[in-house]
Amino acid sequence: MIGIEFQAVSKRYGGPAAPLIVQDISLQVPSGTLTTLLGPSGCGKTTTLRLIAGLESPSSGRILIDGVDVTTLGAADRPVSMVFQSYALFPHLSVLANVAYGLQVQGVSADECRRRARNALELVGLPGLDERMPSALSGGQQQRVALARALVLEPSVMLFDEPLSNLDARLRRTMREEIRALQQRLKLTVAYVTHDQAEALAVSDQIVVMEAGRIAQQGTPQQLYEQPASVFVAGFMGEALLFEAQVDDAGCAHLGPLRCPLRQPVAAGPVTLAVRPEAWHLGPAGGPGLAATVSKCAYLGHALELSLSTELGTVFVVSPDVQAAWQAGQAASLSLGQQGVAVVPTQAPSATG
Q: Residue 273 — left, alpha, or beta (φ > 0 → left; ψ -120 to 50 → alpha)?
């Protein structure tokens, strides 16, 4: 069953001459799965989420939730709950009152409100904090309260708008794991907005990459990372560098002095290669491959990040060999593995990717 469906949906603010913020989008979010809307600022992903929520009305097209046309319904009439970037907790209400608020608005009895609110707080790992005020909570706890407030309404669809952007890196990782685990355990249908590629890869069944109000590509995390359908997607997903190369009749790409067998069959001729930082293999000076000179080297604990000057231009490399003591100005060599190398079309695909 399809949880959320867009049928040729567009949105503009203003008259017919105003630019389209969302342009002719068609997509499906299967029930019980998590789809992430990913893209740079201004690409239309948050507007798309607000269209699902009923906070915006489409200029054209149809929106269906669980097979029911909700295009003309307001937010209060849709089986949808939304978790905002700012959490949007009421500062003058206790944790329990914040979670129960939506139920009270629906006319649920006080005893039932308290019971369901406590159950929701236990579900997100916050039992016993009923009477705390939001100001007395950490950022991660506030995020959990916002999540409980959405869950208590038992929606068909849950929406997340940049839910982790206000948290530090370690807490972001913990919370994204908890959200994903909760979504899978409760079989929730989720649409999730972020601009963080790592976050999208970690939590998603499906990723929809948006560019200028259109869908640049949609598919599984692995498909988007390993088989980008456009130069834009390749550059946005995982810091890929783009190079012009030649493919021979044996299916190998020639990039300067490098010869790289491709994982998928490609017709002989000129191609654009997307090469990710982890695809490069770093070796000593004079080794086989591409001659390089280290420009910068940063130690990150789990890996080294290096910039190297080559005849192909500056190359960014992530190396797991943290014991190597590379210094600026040191000569090196570079070769390529198959993992992290993809051929991308030079022309962007159609809007549906």
A: beta
The neighbouring-strand residues paired with 319 are 304
List pLDDT tens digits, range 9-58: 999 998 888 999 999 999 999 999 999 999 998 899 999 999 999 999 99
Strand bridging mode 269-275 / 258-261:
unpaired
How would residue 346 be classed by pLDDT, with cut points 50, 70 and 90?
low
Give residue 352's Cα distance to chain centre. Answer: 17
- Per the structure, the complete domain to which residue 58 belongs is given by 2-231
* Whole-number Cα distances in Å, 271 to 247, 266, 298: 7, 9, 32
Domains identified in the chain, total number: 2
Q: Which of 217, 339, 350, 345 is nearest to 271 (CA)?
A: 345
Indicate which CATH number applies to the domain containing 276: 2.40.50.140
pTM, entire model: 0.85
Per residue in 210-242, pLDDT tens? 999 999 999 999 999 888 999 899 888 878 899
Q: Is residue 353 in some structural domain?
A: no
Beta carbons of 147 and 124 less than 8 angstroms apart: yes
In angstroms, the CA 31 to CA 142 distance is: 27
Regarding whether 109 and 174 lie in a shared domain, the answer is: yes
What contacts 24+ positions apart, CB below 8 Å, involve 233-238? 233/209, 233/344, 234/274, 234/342, 234/344, 235/274, 236/38, 236/39, 236/40, 236/197, 236/209, 237/197, 237/209, 238/197, 238/276, 238/277
Three-class DSSP category at 105: helix
